[in-house]
Structures are given as structure tokens and as C-alpha cells.
Amino acid sequence: QVQLVESGGGLVQAGDSLRLSCVASGRTLASAVMGWFRQAPGKEREFVARITWSGGRTDYADFVKGRFTISRDNAKNTGYLQLNSLKPEDTARYYCALGLYALSTVPAENRYWGQGTQVTVSS
């Protein structure tokens, strides 16, 4: 079984930055892919970014446009999402997800999720 625990969310002003963390435990991550999704009130959960655990290959949603950076620390079994130049429309609950061998950009196709961390951006 896989456990994912996110942290790092908060209330910030437009233009500020945050770094979200996701600690993974329970299974080996050697072939895993970790990703971040977000869900705003009244909207569907959407893909933000993903990274392969072994090679560090990254993939981003178009709306990220260079503002967000995904990374991981293999030694700490921790993934990160750096959020820069935050906008009010980035307000959402951000979820970490893990695929043992692949991670879909379609939320319903992924099995392992954290509980989420709230990011609120005021104008």
C-alpha cells in the first residue's frame, strides 16, 4: 500500500510563491511517477505536473506556463511542486498522486492519492 502526505499550502497574495511537498511511503519508488493535480470549488480535478522518479523527466499542463516546477528528492522519498507568480485562479486544493509505473493525466485513472493541501491566493 502507498501513503502520500502533502504539506506546504497556505494563504498568500497574488505574485507570491509556495512550495508544496509530498512524502511517499509504503512501496519502492524506483519505477514510480509522481504527479500533482488540483481541484477548485465547483470544478473537476485537473492535472498540473508529473515527474518520473528514476530519470526526473517532467511533464506540465499548458496553463503552468513556466510558473510551476516539479522536482523530487529520491533520498527523502519526497516530491515537490514550486508555485511561483501565483494568481487568484490558482486557488484550489492541490493533490499529490503516485503511479507505480505510470501516472495518467486523467485523475480517475490513478489509484494512489494524498489528502490534499489547500492553496488560496488573494488578489
Molecular structure report:
- The chain is built from no helices and eleven strands.
- The chain is mostly beta strands and 123 residues long.
- The mean pLDDT is 96.
Helices and strands, with pairings:
Elements: E1 3-7, E2 10-13, E3 18-25, E4 33-39, E5 46-52, E6 58-60, E7 68-73, E8 78-83, E9 92-99, E10 112-113, E11 117-122
Parallel strand pairs: 2-11
Antiparallel strand pairs: 1-3, 3-8, 4-5, 4-9, 5-6, 7-8, 9-10, 9-11
H-E order: EEEEEEEEEEE
Low-confidence stretches: none
Q: Helicity level, as a percent range?
A: under 10%
Give the end-to-end Cα distance, rounded to a whole number of Å: 40 Å
**Largest β sheet strand count, sense and barrel closure:** 7 strands, mixed
Approximate strand percentage: over 45%
Tell me the total number of β-strands. Answer: 11
Question: Would you tell me the overall average pLDDT?
Answer: 96
Structural class by SSE content = mainly beta
